[in-house]
Amino acid sequence: MKRRDYLKNIGLSSLGLAALNPQVKAMEALEGAPDPKKVAPIKVPNGRTLDEAERDAKLMAEKFLNQHELETITILSDIIIPADGKSGSASQAGVTKFIEFIVKDKPEFKTPMRGGLRWIDGESKRRFNKLFTEITPKQRIEIVEDIAYPEKVKPQFSQGVTFFTLMRNLTATGFYTSRIGLDDLGYKGNTPNEWKGVPEDVLKQYGLSYDD
Amino acid sequence: MINSSIYIKSQQEVFDVVIVGSGAGGGMAAHMLTKAGAKVCLLEAGQPYDPADPKNITQLKWPYESPRRGANTTRPFGDFDAAYGGWEIDGEPYTRKDGTKFDWFRSRMVGGRTNHWGRISLRFGPDDFKRKSLDGLGDDWPIGYDDMKPYYDKVDRLIGVFGTNEGLRNNPDGIFLPPPKARLHELMIKKANKTLGIPTYPSRLSILTKPINNERGQCFYCAQCSRACQAYADFSSSSVLVKPAAATGNLTLLPFAMAREVTTDPISGLATGVSYVHTGTLQEYTVRGKIVVLAASAGETARLLLNSKSSRFPNGIANSSGVVGKYINDSTGASRSAIIPSLFDRKTYNEDGVGGSHIYSPWWGDNSKLDFPRGYHIEYGGGMGMPSYGFGWGIEGLNGRENFTRDGLKKAAGGYGATLKEDYRRFYGAYVSFAGRGEPVPREDNYCEIDPNVVDKYGIPVLRFHYKWSDYEIKQAKHMQDTFEQIIDAMGGKAMGKKPGADTNYGLADPGRIIHEVGTARMGNNPSTSVVNSNCQAHDVKNLFLADAAPFVSQGDKNATWTILALSMRTSEYIIDQRKKANL
């Protein structure tokens, strides 16, 4: 198949290349029902195996973080990655939903996340006698300033720094793997193309060439 | 309702050849033998898999199409990787002995591990077959490069590989498609390596930069070979070998078939077929064949041989030497990453390229001046790849460094808000990574055996590994780390993290982690010290052949797949020839 035809077809079908001989087809009929006890109660999305789809569905149905915790995460993630002239904020990019899911997918995050949110509410109560969600943006920044810089932290805030570092990392990963974040970075790939080498102006900028 | 008619039919038929395993070796044997007219039954423990079937496709998906953004919670290389299975598979355990380490990666799918592999397709060179003659360690192969060259040539033509002919003695020329041009960071690495005397050449990967036939498409540069290619523009056994084998009409492909043992005739001692468990119904079947070819992977093939016990073969079939399972060896591997300040705030453009490094460095060292035997090659990573889970992680270790800000002032590490957002943009595409892949010395006391106490969920006794690195491999890893730092320095880069030291064996990956395990049923001319002869035919059982990496006497620093393919092709031709002469 010529590249041109193939590019034209991509995304529409599997290029007609998936057709298998009858024997393989017969075997494929077995797939999805290899074990009578495990007949899929759910639709298996493309690109997932049955086991994976079942696990994903279970995680989706699980509730771990509560509404207050999710509100706190939203506020913190927007402090970490706010909207600016170039792109939207963490919450606009769906970071809250990502964090809600990933702490269930990676249960090792459950206690650090829940406990960290408790820590920040405790700190907020001590300073302002209100939960973190109830204080003013200026008051929030006062707390964040004390936990955002690992190398400058005062000893009494060290646990807060650990939590904020986790929040920063999860926020960044969630943001830059979203559509908004990919566009913000200027990622231009994941699409059929022809690689012709580094653009001429870039080669010039770095004093490099293909002739060396 | 399970359709088992095909299983019942396969029980009655006597096939010309029964092959276990549909990866590189099994796929090649199936391809060669069906093409020659043999009726072949191909057993695969995993599920059907075609990279172009929409229900399998992950290629060109965006990170946000995965709720975990491609994290590796369910698949070891992430949600989009084309490997069903991994180092741990539910219900299929293996064990380790005496506190040693070995991690065993298995893909349960048609095509096996070739669906996600790195497509690094390196021929062994003349030295790689004759190591004992050169350094006195390990053993020589009973064959040499001249025996293999015609098959490497045929594999190059059949499957397609890009690269360049450089006239390197131990990294032989091939029949190459044009290689892709280097990416920006790769040009910088090449320039740095030149000052250090480290050779850098275009990679040799089995990816079609030009079409080679009407069945397979051409690379469209998405960098996602690890997700398997729906255009069949890279080599996977599923698409390139099993599919055309099926098209001959001579192939019966049995997925969900977990082989238990090779059955034998007690009188003649010949193999009569393979018994297996259907992984869905858990029913037991036997498929009969005049010839049996095991290509289940070095580990699974050894397990099958050892589990095939009878009064005639009390230590397992083809194991009168006691060598089955011994000499298992995986590549050495160590890695390091760095950030290159001159790449900060770089102009963005699509530089996905092919899946993998466009350049590599074959081994350049002179072992007579070094404190370890054998060598390694370097694979390079980096550039403006598609972000996935883990992106941006650990920026607090970077953005507080000297001279990492635009205005040259040092800022406090970590932070938040608009300036932090600028840091992520600034550092994007400025990372490079280095991975060494080297040759270990195979040892008799590195082995796998049957665990006397443990069975898997099918009731089949499992493998128990005993594996230790020696000083040879540890010193090689140290040399890798020193080399990586030299290259990083020459590029004006800053290495990430602490340099791995003696406490971590210099970052040497645990055995099995590089997924290049070979050598569990090595070939040789002496039946008391080897399992198969130079045609991969069992010394003890003339109609039993091995077609994976089990017969490897050593593994070079060359990644096993291209040699598995060439060797399986050679073995298949031998089988055809012997059948014609009525010797089998």
TrEMBL record, chain A:
It holds the Pfam family Gluconate_2-dh3. InterPro entries: Gluconate_2DH_su3 (IPR027056). It comes from the Bacteria. This is Gluconate 2-dehydrogenase subunit 3 family protein.
From TrEMBL, chain B:
Residues 442-567 form the Glucose-methanol-choline oxidoreductase C-terminal domain. Residues 208-308 form the Glucose-methanol-choline oxidoreductase N-terminal domain. Residues 16-48 form the FAD-dependent oxidoreductase 2 FAD-binding domain. One of its GO terms (molecular function) is flavin adenine dinucleotide binding. Keywords: FAD, Flavoprotein, Oxidoreductase. InterPro entries: FAD-dep_OxRdtase_2_FAD-bd, FAD/NAD-bd_sf, GMC_OxRdtase_N, GMC_OxRtase_C, P2Ox-like. It holds the Pfam family GMC_oxred_N. Its cofactor is FAD. Belongs to the GMC oxidoreductase family. This is GMC family oxidoreductase. The lineage of its organism: Bacteria, Pseudomonadati, Bacteroidota, Cytophagia, Cytophagales.
